[in-house]
Amino acid sequence: MTADSAALLQSHQHHANGSSVATGQQYSVEYLSQLLKDKKQLSAFPNVFHHLERLADEEISKVRVALFQFEFTKEEMSLPEPEGEVQITTEKVFVPAKEHPDYNFVGRILGPRGMTAKQLEQETGCKIMVRGRGSMRDKKKEELNRGKPNWEHLSEDLHVLIQCEDTPNRARIKLARAVDEVKKLLVPAVSS
């Protein structure tokens, strides 16, 4: 290990265990956010920094599990060549809110500052939206908007709307992956 790489490793370890981390937690949301930014910058150079990409993925996974007890599927999506016209395809996944009335599914799906949903969107190529009764923070506003045009979803049970804009053959694969990942989030985490 060179002196430069040792210094970089030490700086990342200090950042991961820094003073901004809440007591009892090894990692902070800020650290995860920085890792995700680093990963996005690395993706600008595909197939160049193989080891850095792998290390970034491993660290993101480790931090996500430590913070949220959740991990996305790591394998790359293999997409066929586009066939047909690009269209918007949607899928609804209903949230088991009636079976677990005290569990915060909306918070689990969105994550801190929406980071869980954002990364899920980045990894699947689909747009992830929480819709239906109980999807809005402001309950009064939800009641006022129920039944109005563009707010029809508020009359439905709580659900995740997954939207993909691609050719039908590719959209099916992306939607299937997104549905699988969202369903993992709909299993209540065991509280310690």
Automatic annotation (TrEMBL):
GO BP: regulation of mRNA splicing, via spliceosome
GO cellular component terms listed in the entry, alphabetical order: cytoplasm; nucleus
Ranges of Polar residues composition bias in the record: 8-21
PROSITE patterns the record matches: KH_TYPE_1
Keyword RNA-binding: yes
Name of the molecule in the record: KH domain protein
Molecular function terms from GO: mRNA binding
Residues covered by the K Homology domain: 87-183
Keywords: RNA-binding
Record region (Disordered): 1-21
